[in-house]
Each structure stands twice: as C-alpha cells, then as structure tokens.
Write a structure and sequence with these properties.
single chain; about 150 residues; alpha+beta; Nuclear Transport Factor 2, Chain: A; 6-stranded mixed beta sheet; 5 helices
C-alpha cells in the first residue's frame, strides 16, 4: 500500500512540475480563431486583432493592401463602427497545414477557409461570404497571423 501511495505521489508531483501537456499547434491555432470569432461577435475589434502579429510586417490583402498591425487595426475600426455593421461572423471549411522548418519544428502554418458575415445595417439584411488564406507564425507570444488574404 505504501508503494502504491508513493508511486501516486511521485506521479502527481511530476505532473505538477511538468504542467499540463501543451496544446498541439493545430489546436492552438483553432483556439485563436475561435477567440477571434467570439471577439468579433462581441463587437471587440482590439480583441479580434490579438490573433495578428503586432509587427510592421503584418500584411492584410483585401480590396487594398495594408501593411503593419496599426494600419490594419485602424482600417477595421474605421470600417466597422457599430455592432450592426460588424454583425455575426462564422468561419467554416478550415484547413490547417503546418509547415515544418528544416529542423522539423512547426514555425509556420497555412490556414484556408471560408467566412460568413451576417449583419443588419440600416434595416437591410446583408450577407457577406468569402474565402481567406492566412499565414501564421509561431513566436514568443504563440501563433499569430502574419499575412491575411481575404476575398
């Protein structure tokens, strides 16, 4: 009985020291996308932008090209000034491809999918649908979007 208790105590101690196993890279990206959706649907653009890398190199390609975290944030804030303009966002058909570096680590990921934005503005129902491709980079703050091409 003592041996069993000692083994259990050692196992518990190892789990506390090592912590919970880290989430897989794919699940970490999916969690970030889910957090983005939640933020958008709350009308919280700054929180939505937390998935983007805060860098002058971060790029958004849509009807125009924007380069830099701050210009992308400003464009969102200017384009979506009310919850009605933002509407309800959903993503589907997500495909996540991890791109290992030469040393085998997953440092980049390509994410493709579809978005659907349902909103009411000035009493008219509007639906926006499109496709996107995202390049994510794993850095000191986790997985962040480096390039967003949405159409």
């Amino acid at each position: 009985m003592r041996r069993l208790l000692l083994a259990f105590t050692l196992l518990l101690a190892c789990q506390i020291v090592l912590g919970a196993p880290p989430a897989s890279d794919e699940s970490a990206i999916r969690a970030a996308i889910s957090a983005q959706t939640d933020a958008w649907n709350r009308g919280d653009i700054p929180d939505f932008m937390k998935a983007y890398e805060d860098s002058p190199e971060t790029t958004f390609i849509g009807s125009t090209l924007r380069k830099g975290y701050q210009p992308i944030l400003e464009r969102y804030l200017k384009s979506y000034t009310t919850p009605a303009q933002m509407g309800t966002l959903t993503f589907n058909d997500l495909e996540i491809r991890l791109l290992p570096s030469s040393c085998g680590k997953n440092e980049l990921a390509l994410v493709t999918g579809r978005f659907h934005l349902e909103r009411k503005e000035k009493g008219e129902a509007k639906k926006d649908d499109g496709i996107f491709s995202l390049v994510w980079r794993k850095g000191p703050h986790g997985w962040k979007i480096l390039l967003d091409h949405t159409s």
